[in-house]
Amino acid sequence: MEYSVSMSASERDVGLVRALGTWGLAASVISIIVGAGIFAVPGKLAASVGVYAPLAFLGCTLAVGAVGICFAEGGSRIPTSGGVYGYIEVALGPLVGYVAGTLKWFGSLMSGASVAAALADVAALVNVRGVRSGARLIGVATALKLVPLVIFVVVGATAIHRANFAVPVNPATAAPGRAVILALFALIGMETALCASGEVVEPARTIPRALALGLGTVAVLYVSIQVVAQGVLGAALAGSSVPLADAMARFGGGLRTLMLLGAAISMLGCIGSDILGSPRMVFAIARDGLLPRVLARVHERTHVPHVAILTYAVVQIAFALSGTFAELAVLATLTVAGLYITGCFAAWRLARQGVALAGAPLNFRWLGIAAVVAIGAMLIIIALASRAEIAGLVVLIVISAAAYLLRKRSAAAAT
Fold first, then answer.
1. Measuring CA to CA, which of 38, 278, 341, 368 is 20 to 30 A from 272?
2. How many CB atoms sit inside 10 A of residue 55's CB?
3. For residue 217, what are the contacts with CB-CB under 8 A and spacing of at least 6?
4. Architecture of the structural domain at 2-12+19-414
């Protein structure tokens, strides 16, 4: 049974071209994580836990780093389209794989629904031209979005006031649980980049390196941004909706405009990375016969899943225009937390079974410890949410499992 599932994982990538290297995949990881949210999240974190906000980022970075180790292990063993979905299916079976895939694409749609529909449309057209075109778009957008953030850290570091770190958060308004969820929301996204694993060159080496490079860069950047924002704005940070722009306004209107422009560019980069990754999840599920077969088509000339890309973009535009997902950041985070739990356990199980389809895998020595840390952290994140939010996650899981069972029953009846 395990062998046939593994063969399915290999056959899923037929027609695709492995052309995505370490730098391209790392840029996709950075681009999808560093979205427009980092230009606003520092203020919300400060409002929740005051000067302790950098600790929320640091703690979540460690948790996401543990997840990244597990994903690097699993991805190096089963480097297929759909990324984490592919190796969860091999390790835990098609039902769990389908539920995990649903959590992934549904969470991505919610996270991206607030981004301008026009940007999603442009990114889709570029990606349909080929995986190299999509990677080039992400590389340019990543560089452009990082420039204002680096400028913010460098310039802002010259105006940090120690007194601004002495402002305690009001215990009556402190919300550490919400702060942790917001910090994790700002850090999620690597699983989207890994959806293109079926088009990665030398995946057993490229995937771990790209994850280490991407997550390391984001961790240093985010903690630095939060520290600088607190040091420059002080108590005003908690009440700012555009904290980076407000901080740079103290150096002149030009730098404030640069921060606002950076936020807009980040939207493009985030959408570009999402369109490069998430449609591959839809494509992978369709190739496994669990979604309409038309979504599994590969373009004869560009060798990309063009129908899945365009369909995903259209659905995302529809959600964006509906305006009903603007306040679903917490549910999106919980959805990804559920995916992370499943993915980490699946990676550990693959390592225990010695499964590897692409040469020597990562073979991380302390994978078990990383899996325990990652799963424990994600369970804590879910526990910090409200009962209604947790219930929403449970309902999504139940509905996706029921949809899988109904589709399998219908297919069996048809034969």
1. 341
2. 17
3. 26, 30
4. Up-down Bundle (1.20)
